[in-house]
Design a protein that fits this description.
673 residues; alpha/beta; Alkaline Phosphatase, subunit A; 2 domains; 8-stranded mixed sheet; 4-stranded antiparallel sheet; 24 helices; 14 strands; 48% helix
Length: 673
């Protein structure tokens, strides 16, 4: 006869394995529209191993407690995973646990899908009912084993058998993985297990889709360790690479030598909010400067910000230490520039205050430095206006708000300093941050400042069109609110331009403006605004991620127009090009391998600057979208030749991202001279 305790454990073990495989199917069905993963042997093996410890302990109580704890953790992670996908197309990563504080501050009920919570509640109920059923079965229907059989010899035998079968399944699965990926450059020379770790680290969305959620989590945990072989690979990578402005140069190399640099990351920076009548300063920079009309970005704000400052970025949750010698502020600081950072949010958010020092910023100005009394309500969308932050209440029409805002000096004298010392100022805006029409306070500001009236006048005169005019009123109102926010940013931008002209520094200053991400916020539980703007429901449609990128300097503009007969840059680009392009046109010598992308002006094939999204763990251009190398979730009028090139450059960018991940995970900063 089988030992009574083993009978109970077998009942629980089989049920838990089946239940977790069902959870895996639910995750796959909702996120990927498929029930089963490609390498099912790996997922079955992972779940079998997960519950194998049940047989190592005789206690029935241990079985219940262990199973319940694992189940509780998985249910929470499942809901988080589904909500991440629902809100922004992201999926769960263990490293996100290190960002819990920041996520909690910006979490909104708009991102809650109660169907997913209902599914979780149903699964919890099923588990509780099953435990009750097992208890009653063994209490009233199964005769107790009265023999003196010892538990542990049998328990250990079953444990060993489960591990043996799991190892067999895993070996079969890993051999399939190695065979299927043997021709992909990024995976050449790697074992099946190494391929699993690299893909989980670099292309997690595709990894979950192919391997299963539990296999992915296990692979992500093991991939956190960087081997000596990988360190050597990183070292070799950073010690090679051509030197720009020495071995190679563009037509624009050195044209902005010794110029000041003003770099602005516009929250939700999108081109369809730039209007000649309503945002004249922004329109002038876009129209007269180099307008990157095929620019895309999809990352969390802090990730896009770091890319625009460093040219590369750590995997989210990996590090908040960017002691990277190739960062733009550190390079310019070593050249005698004053380097300063500005953002009207707390310096503790994303730990920017400490992180900025490692990047090379001499000065950082945050909410507590400029206006400590101002209250932010992220969920409601109550943010201080950019023009208020720039000007304070001592100039212009901001006086209309004097009854509701504190009297501050603003940052204009710091972001555009006096004196002869060259400067690099980086500003992350605030007022254009979503949500876009939930703040009654800010909408009152926009009305008092005349923004809403100007929008209606421009619309009636045919000078502005609501891009969501054919949508419902909610979407139309979001556009009006967002347009008002851009008008306020434009006022702040105009203040900067005027001060530069007053100081005689405008001609000798390079402006770089870029957007961090698309209009991803939702309202009234409807689809995010971006879907209404582009009239699509396909979350992989690359148009959704179009963002602003502008380079402006009179000398640069003139040179570009002489060569190209216009000021439009229509090759594919992303924020990754910003740092190497700035250094290129400033005539600074640098190793191109120190950055993810090339200078925009050194690109021969636009696919050289293919985009990798840390948030989506995907690779895409305006024409193709891939979560796994060689498999495409979106195509837009492509040729076979383009698809072949995309495949090759996907391997290229994925390999670079893998190396940068390892570089940051172990802080191998000494590898970059």
């Amino acid at each position: 006869m089988v030992h009574q305790k083993l009978k109970e454990k077998l009942f629980i073990y089989v049920f838990m394995v089946l239940l977790f495989l069902v959870i895996d199917c639910i995750i796959n069905a909702i996120i990927y529209n498929q029930f089963f993963v490609k390498y099912g042997f790996l997922e079955i093996a992972s779940v079998m191993i997960l519950f194998s410890p049940l047989f190592l302990f005789k206690s029935h109580k241990f079985s219940i407690i262990y199973s319940s704890i694992i189940f509780a953790v998985v249910i929470i992670v499942m809901v988080i995973n589904l909500l991440l996908n629902y809100a922004s197309g992201d999926v769960f990563s263990i490293r996100y646990l290190f960002l819990f504080g920041e996520a909690a501050q910006v979490m909104s009920m708009q991102f809650i899908n109660f169907w997913y919570i209902g599914i979780a509640a149903l699964l919890v109920s099923i588990l509780v009912l099953y435990f009750i059923l097992v208890y009653r079965l063994f209490k009233f229907h199964f005769k107790k084993d009265e023999t003196k059989k010892r538990y542990y010899p049998l328990g250990l035998s079953i444990f060993v058998m489960i591990i043996g079968v799991s190892v067999l399944f895993r070996v079969i699965g890993l051999n399939m993985v190695k065979s299927d990926n043997k021709n992909k450059e990024i995976y050449q020379g790697l074992s099946g297990n190494e391929i699993l770790e690299v893909s989980s680290s670099t292309l997690k969305r595709g990894a979950i889709k192919d391997y299963g959620f539990f296999t992915y989590i296990a692979a992500e945990l093991t991939s956190m360790n960087v081997s000596a072989k990988e360190k050597e690979e990183v070292k070799n990578y950073f010690s090679t690479g051509k030197i720009v402005n020495e071995e190679k140069s563009s037509d624009y190399s050195g044209i902005c030598k010794d110029m000041n640099v003003v770099e602005i990351m516009i929250e939700t920076g999108v081109d369809f909010m730039i209007n000649e009548t309503l945002t004249p300063n922004l329109y002038k920079l876009k129209n007269d400067g180099i307008d990157f009309t095929n620019n895309y970005s999809k990352n969390k704000t802090n990730i896009s910000e770091t890319i625009g400052i460093v040219g590369s970025v750590a995997k989210p949750g990996t590090t908040k230490d960017y002691n990277h010698n190739a960062s733009l502020p550190k390079v310019l600081l070593n050249m005698g520039y004053e380097t300063s950072y500005f953002h009207n949010n707390s310096g503790s958010f994303y730990d920017r205050k400490n992180m900025n020092k490692t990047m090379g910023f001499e000065n950082s100005y945050f909410k507590e430095d400029i206006d400590p009394k101002e209250i932010h309500n992220f969920i409601q969308g109550d943010y201080p206006l950019d023009s208020y932050y720039m000007n304070g209440l001592k100039s212009g029409n901001m006086n209309v708000l004097s009854d509701r805002l504190n009297d501050i000096d603003g940052i204009i004298n710091k972001i555009i300093p006096e004196g002869d010392k060259k400067f690099y100022s980086f500003w992350t805006t605030m007022s254009t941050h979503g949500p876009y029409n939930t703040s009654k306070r800010n909408m009152k500001y926009y009305e008092d400042l005349g923004y809403v009236k100007k929008i209606k006048e421009a619309e009636s005169n045919g000078l502005w069109t609501n891009i969501c005019a054919n949508c419902n009123t909610n979407y139309q109102n979001q556009i009006i609110s967002l347009q008002s926010e851009f008008m306020d940013f434009d006022l702040a931008l105009g203040t900067m331009i005027e001060r530069l002209k007053e100081l005689g520094k405008f001609e000798n200053t390079l402006f770089v403006l870029f957007g961090d991400h698309e209009t991803y916020y939702m309202s009234n539980n409807e689809q995010p605004l971006k879907y209404a703007v582009y009239d699509t429901l396909n979350p992989r449609d690359s148009r959704l991620f179009e963002t602003t990128l502008i380079f402006y300097n009179p000398k640069l503009n003139q040179k570009y127009e002489e060569i190209n007969h216009n000021t439009i840059y229509d090759k594919f680009s992303s924020p990754y090009v910003i740092v190497p392009t700035i250094l290129d046109i400033m005539g600074v010598k640098y190793n191109e391998n120190h950055y993810v992308s090339k200078s925009a002006f050194l690109v021969e094939n636009e696919l050289e600057n293919i985009f990798y999204s840390h948030e989506l763990q995907s690779i895409f251009t305006d024409k193709l979208y891939a979560t796994t190398i060689g498999e495409y979730a979106y195509e837009n009028n492509i040729t076979d030749e383009y698809k072949d090139e995309f495949y090759n450059y996907s391997n290229y960018i994925a390999k670079r991202i893998k190396l940068f991940n390892r570089f940051y995970e172990k802080k191998l900063y000494s590898y970059v001279e």
